[in-house]
Design goal:
Elements (H helix, E strand, L loop, with lengths): L8 H12 L3 H30 L1 E3 L2 E2 L1 H50 L2 H5 L3 H43 L1 H22 L3 H23 L1 H6 L3 H27 L1 H25 L5 H42 L19 E8 L8 E8 L4 E5 L6 H8 L7 E6 L2 E2 L5 H5 L2 E4 L8 E2 H6 L7 H10 L3 H6 L7 E2 L8 H15 L3 E5 L7 H15 L3 E5 L11 E6 L2 E6 L1 H7 L2 H13 L1
Parallel strand pairs: 5-12, 5-13, 8-11, 11-12
Antiparallel strand pairs: 1-2, 3-4, 3-6, 6-7, 9-10, 13-14
Length: 584
Amino acid sequence: MSTKKEIKQSEVLKRVFSELKGYRMQIVLSLLCAVLTVIFTLLIPVLTGKAIDCMLGQGAIQWNELLMVLEKMIVVIVGTFFFQWVMNRINNYITYDITKNMRQKAFNKMLVMPIKNIDAHSHGDYMSRIATDADVFSDGLLMGFTQLFTGVLTIIGTIFFMVRVSLPIALVVIVLTPVSLLVAKFVAGRTYTMFQLQAKHRGEQTAYADEMIENQAIVSAFSYNETAKKEFDVLNERLADSSFQATFYSSLTNPSTRFVNSLIYSGVGVAGALLAIAGGITVGGLTSFLGYASQYAKPFNEISGVVTELQNAIACAARIFEIIDAPEVEESDAQHLDEVKGRIVFEDVAFSYDPAKPLIEHLNLSVEPGQRIAIVGPTGSGKTTLINLLMRFYETTQGSITVDGVDIRCIPRANLRENFGMVLQETWLKEGTIRENLMFANPNATEEQMIQAAKISHAHEFIKRLPKGYDTYIKGDDGNLSQGEKQLLCIARLMLALPPMLILDEATSSIDTRTEMKIQEAFQKMMEGRTTFVVAHRLSTIREADVILYMQDGKVLEQGNHKELLQKNGYYAKLYRSQFICDK
């Protein structure tokens, strides 16, 4: 997505209008209310002029006609309030419903994006687009609906009424109007790029803040606080500068149009006064005309402000559309896995994150049903990459991986992954109760099954000590749970599902040695009859594996069981003995 060409402003506008197609009825009603609001608003200057003309002089007031005019003014004011209230209700519904739908589309797309796209982009920037940019878009769109409709209609309506009052003075206003429009267009045309840059810098700052806050403990442990402050200051200064530029240039629109409109108003006042002296217009008529001239200028000022906000909104909408337009993973429904046995074959598999830097090359591996495969090796050797390929988080660049003779590229991802159970070194718990987190893996499990899984994983004891037991509400980063307790919950979640194939990636890395020994016993029972891949650094935990793969630089350098590899006295034997000496 980051390499995707930026969407042009005209294309964004087309997309926004296409989003509006589903709200035709609401838009028609909003326009109708806007028309009625403008008509009622424009009647007030006419009625004001008539009221003034009813006052002929001191002691010479036509009370009956004046009272009738005042009654009409009350009706008009109440009608204006009512139709404006209805219009605002409709506009709010349209705006926030569109924003809700765009957020939903963006979030849904992120769930089906290739993992490589998510990994290659800042997570904080994604958050900024879905949250902040969507809010800015809704604010601009709401201003467009609320002020743009009424502004345009007010301009048209005031021209009509001014022509009826005095054609010569109306022509003065109409001739000078294009000057205001040209000024607004000149300034607004230069703000879109600046707002794009502002949105980009805002996303970068959000990403950095999210990264530092999420890893505050590590930041503090390495005394990185001051450096983080300086780096944030740079990003903050960059955002402040781009915000200043965007806001400064966009803010020129309103005062520029106000200046031009003030000149127009002054011209109307002078021309009207001369015409009134000549008897060409009454004092009440001139008052009405000046009221229309003021109302005629006001929409231009409002529209200039709306244009500024719309520039910002369009720039933010473009960033949301970039997510919505991002490619989805290519899915296949060619064949479903049913009654999986667990025979897995890697045949001449090659893969690299960067085409210029090969990682895995010519990998061949055959795993029989129920076998336990342990993968060891130094950091960066390709252990986790092997798991990523197996789960189709990434696709092989060469060769094939089959499950029970079926190429995994022909299997729907959801169907493939539901046959695997995973416990990773990095724990993940969703915000909710302990019960909800355990049932996440198997919603149809019974209470007894859930508790049994928790007992087997040795999580039951600490869960019962929590304030509400299994109904204790936790957040994903809940500080009340230790990392080991979180990992026990993840293990319990896996044991509740028990799919036919398992992946344990440093599954007990955060658990104390005594508890780990007990869990290993549970794992032994759980792995019986299930094809299992175990990624481990503690070699003492994989002695019973059927096959141990020693990987380095993406290649399997040694393969065999624990006893065979020790007898070879190769890479694995050296690594095992070094750990044994360290353990001693």
